[in-house]
């Protein structure tokens, strides 16, 4: 990839779900190692954007382009997008009954390693890495041997998403309200992990309304999504203004 080229490039992205237009025209660039916060009122299309980029089949792209590392993201299936280095943390991570957490994550890690031309990790080496990462994130080691998210609290589910993020080390991570249900220690662990991965080149698109977390993350840009378009570009001051006044405000014309 050309180093001067943004890692993620969206141009006029338009998305429908169940015949209803949700994203009208979204354009943005994110460089490797950059962190962009996306804010917006409920229903503005924040989760739609993340799920569309990850390849969720319910979301139909009707216009525009999306490129990751110069490659046509929209031409890839879900598995190809993950192997290319895209990671999405869910707003509400689901249970996967009958599938052990450690096996699930190791399979994902080894699929990505294969795509990078790296040797797979055996169970012993993987467990060593997974235990160390779980300890840093405050996730009990016993949860590695349980079915994915089975009986996990909301905060534990989010920490388990962070565990996957830590072990996969993607090129682009989209975190959808990762702070929801997190305690103070969990938020601190989130910031530490994000900053560690940014230093290695991972780019982040983070959906959050929690000002303390946003300030701790020190984003490169803050965007406000309204009615399916990027209505405002700004920095941390935009997040502070939204925290003070909310989304009900005199809106400038949305820009593509």
Q: What's a quick, concise take on this entry?
A:
It contains eight helices and twelve strands.
Describe how the helices and strands are arranged:
Elements: E1 8-17, E2 20-30, E3 35-39, H1 46-54, E4 59-68, E5 71-72, H2 78-83, E6 86-89, E7 96-100, H3 101-115, H4 123-137, E8 147-148, H5 154-168, E9 172-176, H6 184-199, E10 203-207, H7 211-217, E11 221-226, E12 229-234, H8 236-245
Parallel strand pairs: 3-10, 3-11, 6-9, 9-10
Antiparallel strand pairs: 1-2, 1-4, 4-5, 7-8, 11-12
Helix pairs in contact: 4-5, 5-6
Keywords: ATP-binding, Cell membrane, Membrane, Nucleotide-binding
GO molecular function, one term: ATP binding
Protein name: Fe-S cluster assembly ATPase SufC
């Amino acid at each position: 990839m050309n180093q001067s080229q943004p890692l993620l490039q969206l141009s006029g992205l338009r998305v429908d779900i169940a015949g209803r237009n949700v994203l009208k025209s979204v354009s943005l660039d994110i460089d490797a190692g950059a962190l962009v916060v996306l804010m917006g009122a409920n229903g503005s299309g924040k989760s739609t954007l993340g799920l569309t980029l990850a390849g969720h089949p319910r979301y139909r792209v009707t216009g525009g382009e999306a490129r990751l590392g110069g490659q046509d993201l929209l031409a890839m299936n879900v598995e190809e997008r993950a192997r290319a280095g895209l990671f999405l943390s869910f707003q509400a991570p689901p249970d996967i009954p009958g599938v052990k957490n450690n096996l699930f994550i190791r399979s994902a890690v080894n699929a990505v390693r294969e795509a990078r031309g790296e040797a797979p990790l055996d169970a012993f080496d993987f467990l060593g890495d997974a235990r160390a990462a779980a300890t840093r994130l405050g996730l009990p080691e016993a949860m590695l041997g349980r079915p994915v998210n089975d009986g996990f609290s909301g905060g534990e589910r989010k920490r388990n998403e962070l565990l996957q993020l830590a072990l996969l080390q993607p090129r682009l991570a989209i975190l959808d309200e990762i702070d929801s249900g997190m305690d103070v220690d969990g938020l601190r662990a989130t910031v530490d992990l994000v900053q560690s991965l940014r230093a290695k080149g991972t780019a982040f698109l983070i959906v959050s309304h929690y000002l303390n977390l946003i300030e701790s993350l020190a984003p490169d840009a803050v965007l406000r999504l309204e009615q399916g378009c990027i209505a405002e570009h700004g920095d941390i001051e935009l997040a502070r203004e939204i925290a003070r006044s909310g989304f009900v405000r005199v809106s400038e014309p949305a820009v593509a």
